[in-house]
Specification:
The two termini are about 30 Å apart. The protein folds into two domains: about 230 residues, Rossmann fold, CATH 3.40.50; about 110 residues, no CATH class. Helix content is about 25%, strand content about 25%. The protein is globular, with a radius of gyration of 23 Å. The chain has twelve helices and 16 strands. By secondary structure, it is α+β, with helices and mostly antiparallel strands.
Amino acid sequence: MASRYIKEIRLRHFRSFEDARIPLDDQTILIGRNGSGKSTIIYAFEFLKSALAHSLSRAVEQSGGIAELRQRQNSPGIRYDISVAINLSIGLDEFVYGFRLGSKKGLDSESQWVIKEEVLKSNTDVSFRRTEGTLKSSVDRLLPSFERDSLVLPLVAGANKTLNSIYRAIRSIESFKVSPEAIRAEPPIGALNRMEKDGRNSGDLLKALQSQPESMEWLLSHLSAITPGLVSVSADQYSGRRVIRFQQRGKGISEIYEFTGRNMPDGTLRALALLVAALSKPAPALIVIDEISDSLHPHAVEVLIDALFKKPTTGQILFSTHDSDVLAFPSVRADMIRVVDWQDGVSKVFPIERNLIDNPPPYDTLGDLFRTNALFPAQNALVNDSDFYRLSGSRNVSDL
């Protein structure tokens, strides 16, 4: 498959965001105070993937309905349209894909909604624009039958190699909020080759990795740096359930203690799940991690971030954090950081002020500034153009 790169995600009237675009680098870090909107950005990726991988109706329902997705408006009777789009490149080609949802005309119920627009733009000859009842496309014979709540892209992905690549790239985005409790539950043996969001099937993926010595060596080298004395980790089965076993050195050189996941700390289990996920093949286009620092010692967080950043096959990484120590790690650069802030009743996204990057204060690190709420973002928030689906380059070859 051609190389894939997620360039940015765009939001308009989505939950706490009025208008925002979030550019992504190879590694991107979301920082901000509680309630600023970091989790909403992460959820936007999950929502977009779910809409394509399952169905838009299911994605809306799992979100709590259209009213829970729509930006709140104090003025009675106003219901914003919700827009989500992703800008990506595949090889040398650039694409923007997204859709706009709104209330159905003539109905007062907050639960009634319709796809008002679905758009694919590119710098190639592949594009389409779908409105409530029509579809215009640059691709010959691309005339699928679709319902008001069905997206077109999943229906046409098999009709064209380029469309299929776009569809697969978005579906390959993986989002994680690991639950140590779900891993400790020792779930029934499964056959999934992708990590679940909460990491419950870490043991299944670990079992598959045991036939790959280089992967296991990489995993153990980083996990042992996070959990002192760890000498091995493996996956086994017992009564149809997946059990993860750890061996840790005792007082003497030859003294080895064995534990199952039930007896390991939260931080070790979270790190294990994320490291195993990074070894997935094929690699996700983007790995999204909510609060990477949860239950981890600062040194362990640094080891984990360094491992994810430096593994060449991992793909792009996006994570959120409240941990000011993260901003002082050698592998973290200021240009990776997006500041999410709540201002004037909405969430906004900012890059860091250039003068903080080029001329850092003589006695403070970026982490020190963040800890004291003095890491001021740039003056202007990152917002979308009037054309929500505009390519990031100057050419919109496939406008319909």
